[in-house]
Amino acid sequence: MATHKRAEFTEAEQRLAAIAKALGHPARVAIVRLLAQRRACVCGELVLELPLSQSTVSQHLKELKAAGLVQGEIDGPRVCYCLDLTGWAMARRLLGDLLAAMPTPEAAAPGCC
């Protein structure tokens, strides 16, 4: 039985990759910054702050939500979005672990790049 190559990686590696992918678009970074500043936000308000259409902002929010970085709560006809602080705590830990494993420039092997 064939297995997917993704199964060869740890859950932490897969999770960090999903977070990195979600943050891999400047519009999503801008959305995260706006949500961090406001603590909560309605999607329509985000559209007023960004040079993007409503549908594009909604798609970016969907990607951030799928990565566990944003959560949405239905409030009548609209959805109120905010940062998912549990997801961000995990992202901080996973990224911190990765960065802690990186050598400093002083510790780089001689002759490497």
UniProtKB/TrEMBL annotation:
SMART domains: HTH_ARSR (SM00418)
Superkingdom to which the source organism belongs: Bacteria
Record-linked Gene3D superfamilies: Winged helix-like DNA-binding domain superfamily/Winged helix DNA-binding domain
Protein name per UniProt: Winged helix-turn-helix transcriptional regulator
Keyword Transcription regulation: yes
Organism: Hymenobacter negativus
NCBIfam families registered for this protein in UniProt: HTH_metalloreg
Key words of the record: DNA-binding, Transcription, Transcription regulation
Transcription in keyword set: yes
Domain HTH arsR-type: residue ranges: 8-106
